[in-house]
Amino acid sequence: MARRAHPLDLRVVDTADGHEVATETTIRQTDFDIKPFSLMMGTLKVVDEVVVAITVRVPHQR
C-alpha cells in the first residue's frame, strides 16, 4: 500500500490552564485513498469526513 501525505495548516490554541495546546481539523478518508468503512452490504456506513482533535500537554518548566 502506497503512503499518501497532505500538508495541513492547523491553528493551535492554548487551553485555559496554560499547560496544554489543542487543535482540530477535518480530513476526508478518500483524500488518502481510504475507502470509507461499510458493513452489512452497505446498510451501515462511516462518513468520508473524519474530525481529528489533538490535545498536547506541555510539561512544567523547572
TrEMBL record:
This is YceI-like domain-containing protein. It comes from the Bacteria. Gene3D superfamilies: Lipid/polyisoprenoid-binding, YceI-like (2.40.128.110).
